[in-house]
């Protein structure tokens, strides 16, 4: 081969490599919790399925601990909308500042059990929620689950709203949580998950609310949370979603592949995390945490105390959406 031809061949090879690198770029997937938790496992599963089914053409890389938004989980939705983040598996709570309809799931005692969650997410109400997300500029693909959120504290067992009086409780990203805990007579403080554990450690706050999986894996018992009330007051679904411009860049076949993989990862995560709940509770108990289970009457006292919140919040959430969700739950 002549030298000049050799250079041409080399240049062509280099161009090809560049093209390949551009095509094979990684897509970022944001989560708040790592794959030590069901939440992070949902994202990892999605990445695995996409890699396998695209035969390595599409690579999703998971960035946990909300690191792509410097720990501020309430900025995740905006970052995805603007394209700073390609994809996310995010909680309805953390996206509710930008999508008010997502506060639906945070209404206290709207859903009593898993059947209620499924009836809402898998039916008309779930479709309305997805439309609301689309309207605000992000493409939703499938549902996952963080789980029913239970209440822990360092002071005393909580059986009645009165037991919560004056207690400093760390809450998450939406003003609805401020309203709920203020209505119950507590003293709520909003902070990110990154700040929550230090605040529990120093005693800056007395309590917090999170699913059993989070309590268990994060060893919340080690930061003085000796009391846990199972009140099942709300559950936050997770949503697999994609930034709009990234979505448009995929062919119809790849869009279908991503969506089906998200759906399968979500179903897998929902089932496996529900199946682990009893074991989670047993291990929390075995570490000496005092678990309070409420009688129907005791739970009703919390339902009655928080009922006035519905009037204020149904306007923000949407009267029609709330009606659809209530009908779905009532039909169970
Ligand atoms: O911050 C929390 O409490 C967490 C981890 O559950 C969410 O991101 C909603």
UniProtKB/TrEMBL annotation:
Assigned keywords, A-Z: Signal
Keyword Signal belongs to the record: yes
PANTHER family (UniProt xref): DICARBOXYLATE-BINDING PERIPLASMIC PROTEIN (PTHR33376:SF2), PTHR33376
SUPFAM superfamilies the UniProt entry points to: Periplasmic binding protein-like II (SSF53850)
Signal peptide range: 1-24
Record-linked Pfam families: DctP
Presence of keyword Signal: yes
UniProt superkingdom: Bacteria
InterPro entries: DctP_fam (IPR018389), TRAP_DctP (IPR004682), TRAP_DctP_sf (IPR038404)
Name of the molecule in the record: DctP family TRAP transporter solute-binding subunit
